[in-house]
């Protein structure tokens, strides 16, 4: 039996279909326990005596949440259909552009009936891997939010207090945030004393000649610059104080979540193998584990893992024309972690560095060369996870003389 599930926050439009494409039943079910119970009842009613031996295949445009977890727990085979795939399939069925929730449920049921072999089933990741995913994704989200707020702070200072922008090379530094909170408008900043600035630097655990550094900051904040009217500057100052307060909270929560990431990741059985890879520490390693998952049957080969990672190139060939490009439809969180790993790996792994230099010698640009290193590292990680062995430099890069020499 095939089930199409068009989900929304409060309800699900579902359709049950047999192997010939005939509609067996359809309904709008509420989200939650009541809706899941009704779905089970609908399936049981249609299957009758065959309930124990029949397979129920579900198509739905998400791979997470309690509803999906309940479907998997019930023994259904669930396919998380990419919304882009669903949109293209919808065009196959109707060129008029008509769309409704019930029609989408029919389309999803028909899609898993005819094209299940082209779709990816929801991975059977362990609860440990799911926990790592939850904390790592929120940790990364808060880091992205902190970056956005720092850019907003930078834009505000540029508009009314460019001297502060020139004074602080790193706006995220604790002393910069504390001084901006203490004296957010140019007039108040110009009144800061050497002693006040030195105290702030000491609280930020700065070392060296603090008096000299405080004098440089004081001189920078007193530098003449084009000013806004007093009322406008006061409004900007209030905005900056609000941004600094938010950044302080984000910094604290990023630090707290980083400890959670390390704790959850450290308890996972694959942590030792992942940490043995060059360029992966507790945070990056946790992100890689979270986005790849730990279902041992999810990736049939290293190539399948590379394709999912988005590190392997895409080839478009027609007639005499052949173009090889990077993948742009990919898991952004995963590719971000893998490219960061590659950037660290070329500094610490002789084999990775030799491979990177080889790409650069072929006039491949920096980003493309890093992506190719990341692609190789994904294959190495796949082999280590499949065999249950730790990373070994000589085994990973056997064809590079630099590795043998090292």
TrEMBL record:
<feature type="domain" description="Transposase IS116/IS110/IS902 C-terminal">
    <location>
        <begin position="272"/>
        <end position="356"/>
    </location>
</feature>
<dbReference type="InterPro" id="IPR003346">
    <property type="entry name" value="Transposase_20"/>
</dbReference>
<dbReference type="Pfam" id="PF01548">
    <property type="entry name" value="DEDD_Tnp_IS110"/>
</dbReference>
<dbReference type="Pfam" id="PF02371">
    <property type="entry name" value="Transposase_20"/>
</dbReference>
<protein>
    <submittedName>
        <fullName>IS110 family transposase</fullName>
    </submittedName>
</protein>
<dbReference type="InterPro" id="IPR047650">
    <property type="entry name" value="Transpos_IS110"/>
</dbReference>
<feature type="domain" description="Transposase IS110-like N-terminal">
    <location>
        <begin position="3"/>
        <end position="162"/>
    </location>
</feature>
<dbReference type="InterPro" id="IPR002525">
    <property type="entry name" value="Transp_IS110-like_N"/>
</dbReference>
């Amino acid at each position: 039996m095939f089930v199409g599930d068009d989900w929304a926050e409060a309800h699900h439009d579902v359709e049950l279909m047999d192997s010939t494409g005939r509609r067996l039943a359809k309904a709008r079910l509420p989200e939650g326990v009541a809706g899941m119970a009704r779905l089970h009842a609908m399936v049981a009613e249609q299957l009758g005596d065959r309930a124990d031996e029949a397979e129920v295949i579900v198509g739905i445009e998400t791979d997470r949440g309690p509803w999906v977890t309940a479907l998997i727990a019930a023994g259904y085979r669930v396919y998380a259909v990419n919304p882009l795939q669903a949109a293209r399939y919808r065009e196959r069925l109707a060129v008029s552009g008509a769309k409704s929730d019930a029609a989408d449920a029919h389309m999803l049921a028909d899609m898993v009936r005819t094209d299940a072999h082209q779709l990816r089933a929801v991975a059977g990741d362990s609860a440990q891997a799911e926990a790592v995913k939850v904390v790592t994704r929120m940790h990364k989200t808060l880091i992205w939010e902190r970056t956005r707020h720092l850019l907003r702070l930078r834009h505000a200072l540029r508009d009314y207090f460019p001297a502060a922008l020139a004074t602080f090379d790193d706006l995220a530094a604790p002393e910069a945030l504390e001084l901006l909170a203490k004296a957010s408008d140019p007039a108040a900043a110009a009144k800061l004393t050497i002693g006040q600035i030195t105290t702030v630097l000491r609280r930020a655990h700065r070392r060296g000649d603090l008096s000299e550094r405080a004098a440089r900051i004081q001189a920078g904040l007193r530098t003449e610059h084009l000013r806004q009217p007093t009322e406008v500057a006061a409004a900007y100052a209030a905005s900056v104080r609000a941004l600094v307060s938010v950044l302080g909270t984000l910094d604290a929560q990023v630090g707290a979540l980083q400890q959670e990431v390390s704790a959850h990741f450290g308890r996972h059985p694959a942590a030792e193998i992942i940490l043995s890879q060059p360029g992966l520490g507790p945070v990056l390693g946790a992100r890689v584990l979270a986005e790849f998952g730990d279902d041992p049957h999810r990736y049939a080969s290293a190539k399948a893992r590379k394709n999912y990672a988005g590190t392997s190139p895409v080839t478009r060939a027609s007639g005499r024309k052949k173009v090889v490009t990077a993948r742009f439809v990919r898991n952004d969180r995963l590719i971000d972690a893998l490219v960061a790993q590659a950037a660290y790996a070329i500094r610490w792994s002789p084999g990775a560095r030799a491979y990177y230099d080889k790409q650069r010698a072929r006039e491949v640009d920096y980003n493309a060369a890093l992506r190719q290193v990341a692609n190789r590292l994904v294959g190495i990680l796949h082999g280590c996870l499949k065999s249950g062995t730790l990373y070994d430099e000589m085994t990973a890069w056997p064809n590079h003389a630099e590795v043998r020499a090292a």
